[in-house]
Design goal:
- Two copies of one chain form a homodimer.
- Chain A is of the alpha/beta class.
- The first copy, chain A, has four domains: about 100 residues, Ubiquitin-like (UB roll) (Roll), CATH 3.10.20.30; about 70 residues, Ubiquitin-like (UB roll); about 140 residues, Domain of unknown function (DUF4445) (Nucleotidyltransferase, domain 5), CATH 3.30.420.480; about 280 residues, no CATH class.
- Chain A contains 16 helices and 27 strands.
- In chain A, the strands form six sheets. In chain A, strands 6-13-12-11-14-15 form a six-stranded mixed sheet, with helices on both faces. A six-stranded mixed sheet of chain A has the order 26-25-16-17-18-27, sandwiched between helices.
- In chain A, a hairpin with a 3-residue loop joins strand 11 and strand 12.
- Chain A is globular.
- Chain A starts with a strand and ends in a 17-residue tail after the last helix.
- The mean pLDDT of chain A is about 90.
- At the A-B interface, helix 5 and helix 6 of A face helix 5 and helix 6 of B.
Chain lengths: ~625, ~625
């Protein structure tokens, strides 16, 4: 074996690139070295089976794997993460391998949920107000007798002390003359910013724009907003480009602690995700990115660390301390976002290592602190975070639910986007499923999202196909066991799906899902106990996150994921983190209220809370070891 | 002729690069397109003869030129700027062609002049003070019971509201722990900056550093300074990388007005000059560039526009209005200088299109406004700027002297650096010159700097070799006329020089020089008249700039460049612009005093001042049409 090898990557519609790497490096490492995008949800552990490449020529040291059928292996298919370079090699990378990173979806229309953001805020007394105004200015024409510089002439006319941003200064000489010395200035007079700043100048009245961004571990969602009136000009979604360092947040934190790692994670979210996302939204709305004068970010504590490029390793080490809760005073230029260099950045504060700005913003968006009624807010993102409380108090905790509710750690899991099975009923006798799929009428399935998982597990349980421990209890038909001993239930056969691969749920998926729902339920029980409340005291139960609007609350109760309270108290509120980001974006009063929400929250550390581990063990059954917690339901 | 041609550039010690350009493009344009550095002092007009390349193969449309001898042309030598591409071609570019741009000289020792900066300031009551302090901080160790985030823990211990810079936040988690929770923070509490900002954190006491930079049209000079005590840690000089767009400021302004031009000029000074210059100084002093917490810039009005990337075309169009006089509130990150992103930038204010921050800073450094005595301050940079006044008033003007005093527009001209002939005496009978050269004892000459030019012209005139109009009046010996009709006086024969090329002065050089000295003298006369003063009222005459410390004031008077006043009133104060930049860097009070100096200045527009043109015509003789202005001098 030579000491270094040249690995060449080819793909569809782009030039081949190659990297010289040490023998023994993984194909994934070689790909990262030469900038070839390969998502690696399991962070290179060979467990998710999602990084299948094809060896075109040369050698790789690579064992067979349960994710590769014999005929696939024979055809040169390999998992990039567990295949090691043993000589020069050429490798074909299908475009689907960078699906999370490269797919940006932009719409000129806001989503159904986002359409109501402004009205919901207005009803709570928050109107668009970011202290940015378009001000008309008239100046005298310069002459040999009056050769005052443009900036000083402009400021004298504007009155009062002002700082002129570089962006505005660069335009001023031409704007002033082209507009015949009567033009407009966009001025921000924000609290704590002295003097006021001139952000932009133009011949005509100026509109300030803003972006609200929810940075999820898996996906990034954003809105482009007219700050003058709160109108949503465009919305966008993209995969979080950090997926090449793992789908799981812990893998990314580990990567970030390596030399240069914090910078790599930072650049992945900025350069490979936010800058193109913002650029695409601005292009859709026909405005330059420099017209974005304010940006609001929400996300979990780790994502906020990576956004800022801050060392995050202490988040995963006892005593689990973040580098920061709040991050004030940043400007667009600080993060090289391509927006106005002096844009104000509002970053929603975190309250703990695992309760971040997505939760403070989401709790604000739910309005749970506006009322004396007890509310339970659950964000089913890549992890599960919970807030319990009212206008009197807010208690929060994070349960290590993992990404199952977003389709992570599930072989055929996916987010609640086109092709996701979001609802399912199974015929108890024939075991034939009937499902509905997100997207156009009659669309073929691609995978299963969180709400679909809940239905399928509930139905498998109801039909006796799996037992209370989640083990398969029936045989035949759609239940098959492969040579590796993995049993699975086929939801959609290969010839019924969009991409020709069967959609199924296997032992490992069901185990992952039961652990996820168990940790969520145990956390809810523990919090209720901590505040001395019973499930029946809960007046509102808000479910937020990417689990999908198709969530069947009855099924979620059936499997012991949510407490058994009247169904009318449940509501699915979608991406509440983005709703909170929008609120902080268009109203500095709302931004202050998000901060106040964070300040009100008490963080409960579950891992050291007495009794939590017992609750967790008890909750990892269907529905629970204590069946009395759940009322009997027809068919269950 | 094909429509596009591939031009390949080779050089010593680097890979060949090529560009595809339209047929008819100049070689200079092709070089710029693929990033090959070719200085173009005359901005592509074919007049300076300094862009000689060699055609290795292929075709160029190129006329012979007086700058190329027959044998050179036959050997493939061509002027890059006036040679047009007519087919594929390979061109050799000698390294000397990017001499201005690529040569950065760094010294760990300050220059002789800079060594006194601090003491001169101290004598005037300005001590180092930039409101930046290293503050010791102790925090409690985080625990599961006290999981407050690092930033919030740190700020609570620091007391009072603070903003934590991203750079400091990125270090905080590791510094805090590595230092055992007792460490240091570098805090700036500057006026108009609320709240105070934490710039850096470290285990040990922190030292803030700063850079003072004088951006000349031709050269850039810089100092790296310990802000705590004003010590100069390193000094550096480099050519202004904008020289590829012309040595003359007007050519650069024209370039900057083309599409993308302001950005090109901006990037040339930032990326190709300031970033490497700062990097080299910091490397010499063994500090990271991020430890530079304050930067002070001086330069003419145009250079300050390009520094900021601001449209500058109105500077050359009546009524000659700059885009700005002052430029407050900028930070290191705004200009991508590679220093601390939150470094404060002090940019010396301009007072007119042709009287910039170099003059306001220089006038401050001269201390002329500290006294009631009338002083005349003359900066002989690439142009000539003059300030006349005292503590009562300051009047300023710019004379279009051109770059002759810095060696520009002179065939063998150069700055007062190693190899420059800085003094000269000519034997009236044999016409043999005796000269001294800047640099090591016995160094061979390379060219002629400003002070050398004054001596040579004065001596040529004294010896009757040239007449009062600057025309050659004697023949033979060192006086030769070439086939283009250009007559020249050889100061050093080819075999006496460093590079084997003769050092000479020709008709055109003498014309340029007489125009330069004439415009300076006319400006002085006009200003004196404007304030109702006579030459005899001048108590101090300060000469600043790159003309060289070897300036012979008697000769400068002999040729009618400076007024005929007692020699003891003259003093050469070197780079006063850099001295002013240093002052503003180490003391915010001094920075305020530079601003106050600018506010005190009245700008006199010579071009419209009655009688100036008559003065100019009268002064373009040796010494002047009115000989009574100059007392008879032995030998003259």
């Amino acid at each position: 074996m030579s000491e270094t090898c040249r690995v060449t990557f080819s793909g569809d519609g782009r030039e081949a690139v190659s990297a010289v790497v040490a023998a023994g490096s993984s194909v994934l490492e070689a790909a990262q070295k030469c900038g070839v995008a390969i998502d690696a949800p399991c962070a290179g552990n060979g467990t998710c089976g999602k990084c299948v490449v094809t060896l075109v020529s040369g050698e790789l040291e690579s064992e067979r794997n349960r994710h590769l059928a014999d005929e696939d292996y024979a055809a040169g298919k390999r998992l990039a993460c567990v295949s090691r370079v043993a000589g020069d090699a050429e490798i074909y990378v299908p475009p689907s391998l960078a699906a999370y990173r490269n797919r940006i979806r932009v719409d000129n229309e806001p989503s159904a949920g986002a359409r109501n953001y402004r009205e919901l805020l207005r009803a709570r007394g928050f109107a668009p107000n970011t202290n940015i105004q378009s001000v008309p200015v008239s100046v005298g024409e310069p002459s040999l007798d009056d050769p005052m510089a443009d900036r000083e002439r402009f400021l004298a006319a504007l009155g009062g002390p002002h700082r002129v941003s570089l962006a505005a200064l660069r335009k001023l000489p031409l704007v002033m003359r082209e507009a015949g010395y009567a033009f407009h200035a966009l001025v921000r007079e924000a609290e704590g910013e002295t003097p006021a700043i001139v952000l932009d100048v133009a011949a005509d009245e100026l509109t300030p724009f803003g972006i609200a961004v929810d940075i999820g571990t898996t996906s990034v969602s954003a809105l482009l907003v007219d700050l003058a009136n709160g109108d949503i000009m465009a919305s966008a979604n993209a995969g979080n480009a950090q997926i090449c360092y793992g789908a799981d947040i812990i893998h990314r934190i580990i990567e970030s602690a390596k030399p240069g790692g914090a910078e790599r994670l930072h650049r992945a979210i900025i350069d490979d995700c936010l800058v193109p996302l913002i650029g695409d939204m601005c292009a859709a709305a026909h405005i330059p990115a420099g017209a974005v004068m304010r940006a609001s970010f929400t996300g979990n504590t780790t994502m906020m660390h990576f956004l800022a490029g801050v060392y995050a390793d202490h988040l995963r080490r006892e005593p689990y301390v973040p580098a920061f809760f709040e991050l004030g005073g940043l400007r667009g230029g600080d993060l090289e976002l391509g927006i106005h260099a002096d844009a104000q950045l509002c970053i929603a504060p975190s309250v703990g290592s695992y309760v971040g700005g997505d939760i403070t913003a989401g709790a604000f968006a739910s309005a749970m602190a506006d009322s004396e009624a007890l509310s339970l807010f659950i964000d089913l993102g890549t992890n599960g975070e919970i807030v319990l409380g009212s206008s009197d108090y807010l208690m929060t905790c994070a349960c290590s639910a993992g990404p199952a509710f977003e389709g992570g750690d599930i072989a055929c899991g996916m987010r609640a986007t086109d092709g996701a099975i979001e609802k399912c009923v199974i015929d108890a006798e024939t075991m034939t499923p009937a499902y509905s799929v997100v997207g156009a009428e009659g669309a073929a399935p691609v995978g299963i999202c969180g709400s679909g998982l809940i239905d399928i597990v509930a139905e498998l349980f109801r039909c006796g196909i799996i037992d209370a421990k989640g083990k398969f209890a029936r045989e035949g038909g759609r239940i098959t066991t492969d040579e590796w001993g993995i049993t699975s239930f086929t939801v959609a056969f290969a010839d019924e799906t969009e991409d020709g691969s069967a959609v199924y749920l296997d032992d490992a998926d069901i185990d992952n899902f039961i652990r996820a729902k168990g940790s969520l339920f145990a956390a809810i029980r523990t919090m209720l106990e901590a505040v001395g409340a019973a499930p029946g005291d809960i007046e509102n139960l808000f479910i937020a996150g990417g689990i999908g609007s198709g969530i069947n609350f009855a099924n979620a109760v059936t499997i012991g994921m949510l407490p058994d309270i009247p169904r009318e108290k449940f509501s699915y509120i979608g991406n509440s983190s983005l709703a909170g980001a929008y609120a902080a974006l268009i109203s500095h009063e709302a931004a202050g209220a998000v901060d106040a929400t964070a300040a009100q929250m008490t963080y409960l550390e579950l891992s050291t809370y007495p009794g939590y581990m017992d609750e967790l063990i008890a909750a990892c059954f269907l529905p629970h070891t204590d069946a009395s917690l759940f009322s009997p339901r027809s068919g269950a």
